[in-house]
Amino acid sequence: MSTLRRLLALGTGRFGILVAGLVVLIALISLVWTPFDPGVVDVRNRWADPSWPHVLGTDNSGRDIASLLMAGARTTVVVAVGAGIVASLLGIALAALGALTARWVRESVAVLVDILVAFPVLIIAMMISAVWGGSLAVVIWSVGIGFGVNVARVTRPELRRVLHSDFVLAGRAGGLSTWQNLTRHLLPNVAPVFIVQLSWAMAVAVLAEAGLSYLGFGAPVTQPSWGVLLSDLQAYIAVHPLTVVWPGLAITLTVLGLNLLGDALREAADPTLAERTPSARTPVPGVVA
């Protein structure tokens, strides 16, 4: 609870929670209601200006942009959560192998992680797409693998540090197995670092999904997606620039919110940062009359 209070005390934390909560809420609402059917084409209302009932206007097919953005939020949430789950499982597995196993296994895992970190997430996604084709599953797995090794690289040293703590040694002396020590003592103590990395992984997932969908490697054109919508509308940016603003703004705010939430989580979870106080001011001698 103290970490949550410190998080809410930070402006970046409140902004990140607000943005993430709003995106999730919109995605849930879009499951049962959108102003218009996102897939319905209305040629008579092509390029309608923002007004009632099309509050954000329409695109080149007459589809309501607000409805497309609401439906696209579902894709964003699915990719962010899915990539976060894959990154979590892979990161914890690699970190545990790199911290709790025999020396030759630890060193092999460290070398493997260093090699995989060298590959950017988008490159990994394009390589996988070239084999299995573009889809949301490709985005989820590529981002999850790409950021999972980053999670492992950051979490592994923390696990090694906590591994030599007195309470871990006492648990081992009391008969706890390696798995019991991992779940009871090690993972809870590295959770703050892990959660911060996870929030950044979700931000990268949102950006990667939009970028890959824009390039044709992500969501199929029949599925509402902010990246697909941006790709469809960018050809008309010279004549209808406002229509491109909405999906671009949605992507920017979501990624910014998740990144700021990650920074705030790092600051709130670090006791040394939370308890740090400004240095005392040097007293200025008064002027003698």
From TrEMBL:
Its main location: membrane. CDD domains: TM_PBP2 (cd06261). The chain crosses the membrane at residues 7-33, 77-97, 109-132, 138-155, 193-217, 237-261. Residues 73-262 form the ABC transmembrane type-1 domain. Keywords: Cell membrane, Membrane, Transmembrane, Transmembrane helix, Transport. It comes from the Bacteria. PROSITE patterns: ABC_TM1. It is a multi-pass membrane protein. InterPro entries: BP-dependent_transpt_permease (IPR050366), MetI-like (IPR000515), MetI-like_sf (IPR035906). It is found in: Cell membrane. Belongs to the binding-protein-dependent transport system permease family. PANTHER family: OLIGOPEPTIDE TRANSPORT SYSTEM PERMEASE PROTEIN APPC (PTHR43386), PEPTIDE ABC TRANSPORTER PERMEASE PROTEIN (PTHR43386:SF25). This is ABC transporter permease. It comes from Microbacterium phycohabitans. The lineage of its organism: Bacteria, Bacillati, Actinomycetota, Actinomycetes, Micrococcales.
